[in-house]
Amino acid sequence: MRLPDWPGHVAGQHVDVRLTAPDGYTAQRSYSIASPPGQPEVELVVERLDDGEVSPYLTDELRTGDQLELRGPIGGFFVWPEHSDTPVQLIAGGSGVVPFLAMLGHHQETQSDVPVGLLYSVRTDADVIARDELRPRAGVDVVLTFTRDAPVGWDGPTGRIDRDKLVRHTVRPEQRPAIMICGSTPFVEAVTRELVALGHGVDRIKTERYGGMGDGS
Amino acid sequence: MNAADDTDARYLDGNAIGGPLTELYAADLTAAIVICASCGNEQPLAAHRVYPDAPAMVVRCPGCTSVVMRYASDARGVRFEMTGVRLLTVAMSSDETA
Q1: A94 and A169 housed in the same domain
Q2: CB-CB contact of A118 with A134 (8 Å)
Q3: Is the residue at A4 inside a domain?
């Protein structure tokens, strides 16, 4: 999207999209910004929910050149920790990976030397969002786990994120990582519970819960 | 609000009320520290539970589940009730980007 008066955003922020029907009925949803701050155009990732009020319009009807009513950028809590002196651990369930795309892009744009890890739980190979941006590179460790169907020949982790996967694939509590978790409410609750049990401080964990149902990977 | 019955239902977190609150406040409140008037729990607004499906958005304390805020926007205007908040602290940072 090209946004004429956009004040610029911070990686991790979201926008509210409002649709207004001819009869005045309005529906509004929040979408995380997928693009890093250094990019002039703002990208959202919209997952289509069949019974949704907003996402089917955005995915099926919206055309290039159409205008949208937006509010944002919003949020100063669930944002990239700019001056972190410890590693950053990102943990995503399903479309919860979207704010982390902005963070990984920002990490690359600023040539940050903060080590960052992403553990990303996704149903199937076809559900992986932005595969190109998730390629591991220097200082960035990306681990996927497939909860429903792993691609043929996959020898990485499968199944939901549990304590064992957190031990194997995330930064250890002794390193005091800044942890950010984004996904459905049950996903965020389960992962947070396991991390605290492993010895991570609650004050080191920031979370964002997504409203989309049926996305509990 | 019928407290106990609703608390197991679908909920989000305080990040979800950040947008609506920009109708009233210039500062971002998702990072603001809220002290619960009921139990004294001290948490960022973003870490609170938000129940978006009620006629109003209902914000509950993550510690004791008491209602700390309610927000509604309709033809009558914006209504914001926060008797459940003892203290709201917004940190003013010098390098505020947004």
Answers
A1: yes
A2: yes
A3: no
- The CATH number that applies at residue A134 is 3.40.50.80
| Residue B2 clears pLDDT 70, i.e. is over it | no
19-58 of B, contacting A, C-beta below 8 A: 19-20, 22, 28, 30-31, 44-47, 52
Residue with tokens 């030397």, as numbered in its chain? A113
**Is A1 inside any structural domain?**
no
Identify the domain containing residue A62 by its residue range.
Answer: 14-74
Q: A60 and A133 share a domain? A: no
Mean pLDDT, residues A128-135: 92
Share of chain A above pLDDT 90, in %: 81
Is A69 an interface residue toward B (CB < 8 Å)?
no
User: Do the Cβ atoms of A76 and A103 come closer than 8 Å?
Assistant: no
Least-confidence region, from A110-119, A189-198, B8-17: B8-17
Check if A30 contacts B (Cβ < 8 Å).
Answer: yes
The confidence score (pLDDT) of residue B9 equals 55
Q: In the β-sheet with B67-74, what is the strand arrangement from edge to edge?
A: B12-13, B49-51, B57-60, B67-74, B77-81
Residue numbers in A near B31 (CB within 8 A):
75-77
Is A20 within a domain?
yes
